[in-house]
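Field reference: sequence -> structure
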Amino acid sequence: MADRVTIYDTTLRDGSQGEGISFSIEDKLRIAHKLDEFGVDYVEAGWPGSNPKDDELFQRLAGAPLTRARLAAFGSTRRPRTPANEDPTLLSLVRASAPVCTIFGKSWDMHVTHALKVSLAENLEMIADSVAYLRGHVDEVVYDAEHFFDGYKRNPDYAMRTLAAAHKAGASALVLCDTNGGCLPHEVAEITEAVVARFGGIVGIHTHDDSGCGVANALAAVRSGARHVQGTINGYGERCGNANLCVVAPNLRLKLGMECLEPDALQHLTGLSQYIDEVANLSPTGRQPYVGKSAFAHKAGVHVDAVLKHRATYEHIDPEQVGNSRRMLVSELSGGSMVVNKAAERHIDLQKKSPETRHLLRRVADMEKDGYSFEGAEASFELLLMNAIGTYRSLVEISGFRVIVEKRKGEEPTTEATIKLSVDGLQRLTVAEGDGPVHALDTALRKALLEFYPQLEGIWLTDFKVRVVNVRAGTAARVRAIVDSSNGDTTWSTVGVSHNMVEAGWHALLDGIIYGLLRAGVQPYSAAGEGA
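Structure field:
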């Protein structure tokens, strides 16, 4: 390993400024301790004094301190014409009792004269006074040079003087910020190299992704000598977001050979990414590098066949290195190798050119032509697999169902479902109400089946999604319904397609329940006492 790069996480401050993200105090506490457990070097928790939530957060972190990471409080340089020891922002930073204070100051002369409306000389005094004051009260001061790259391109001498003011006053890190996110990697590399040549290894980098180069710019700065990288988990942040630490960190360690985090930290990276998304109430981005669900997913038959022979054919790293896993997607593009692999996962011995394999591939291709998609509904594919090899066991025979939706003036619609079915020759007719057609059908089906299969108590529907397949057909279009089900330990998805939305949902719902029961080891019911 080469030089060590410190990882500074600002998810709780910069990341929370992203559209659609709102962390409660409890959320922030959970994330702070999760980041600490993961092993980042710094956790920037917020801006004390700017809002009551951040003030309370620092109070509570004082009572439940981080054990590995250094806690950082964020703020700005002192106000113009205000002594540092009387400035409200600096006083709030000191009261936060964090061992690290990070403050930003102006590096772009245009911002100094047009936004702050002070002289260039006074801005240098504000930077120096603020760093020196905080350095007398906390262990470490990090200086974020706001708009540094834009400022350097227009007035390199003045931009450098702002860094010199912070450095002379005692800043432990000089962080170059691409605040507008508009720089390209070659610009960041050249400018960072010039700064490192003057100030050495205390230079850091803070990039945004407005030009799609947030991660590339951070890596370019490190290659030019920066040894402190700021970013957020999953790239959260204002506008297009910040540099994504879930991409920066593995690139630093696995691609550039730089020492960062603890040796085993990356094995928990995918779990951390998913945890932060869950707390933020955001759906994970499947195509995110390294940690996304699709990062190591293979669909084309040629790819599947090759990667099963040697992972390096279509994978740049082992998925396990970042806590992810390989997935073989089921589609009309899949080859025999995918079917054999899927069967092997379920301890079923199939051959690539066997009649069962060929039949299943034709069946998948025909169904996908009609609008089915098994990429996100592998439970439905497993039921097809069981049918193809003759291991599927029928648990219920459905005679039919009826759904009635009634809307009266001034009232919410009511939905009633009636289902007629039989289990081992025993017929049942059940009626149930629900919040919608699928919910009513789910309730009626459970009402009928629980008598025969009590294991159904531990299986429930968790999500229901509908998508139009052939949009141009208008109201006559086919719809694809996906039902997600769970038993508390695992989840699975099933699919149904029809011109009728209720029927599509019904097929997905029934498959989900049947799959869950078969997964639980349920045998076909027998009135004589065999099976369930």
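Note: The longest helix spans residues 501-519.
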